[in-house]
Structure formats: structure tokens, C-alpha cells
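Hello,

Our lab assistant flagged a job as stuck in the queue for most of the afternoon. It eventually completed. Since we weren't sure the result was trustworthy after the delay, we are filing this so someone can double-check. Below is the sequence as submitted and the structure that was eventually returned. Let us know if re-running is recommended.
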Amino acid sequence: VDFRHAAVREQLEAIAPTYFVSPYGEDAGSQLEGMRQTFADVGTLTGNEDAATDVLDDLDAHLA
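-- returned structure --
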């Protein structure tokens, strides 16, 4: 983990399951791609993958 929360990672993980996002990493792509991936990841991690897919599909429809 190479971002501002690295110093407190262990403390945060002791409180609750923790998911770290690095939106400016080498493989981040565009801001939209990064947001989509983060949203899909959170959907998967919370057991809401289908709902996350529906929301992203709706977003695509509105952006088209």
C-alpha cells in the first residue's frame, strides 16, 4: 500500500474489513474506468455484484 493510509492500515483493518483504492496507480486508466472498477469491486465484496452491474448498466445508458 503506497498511499496516505499506509501508516494506519493495520489499525483500520483491526476495526473492520478494509478495501484500499489507489485511483492514480499505473493501471488506473481514466477516472471513469477507475470509478467503475471500484464500484464493481465493492459490489463483489459486499455480495451485491448483480446490483452493482445493474447500476453500472444504468450509468452506461445515461452516458450514451
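-- support follow-up --
The delay was a queue issue, not a problem with the job. The result is valid. The chain has one domain: 6-63. The two ends are 35 Å apart (CA to CA).
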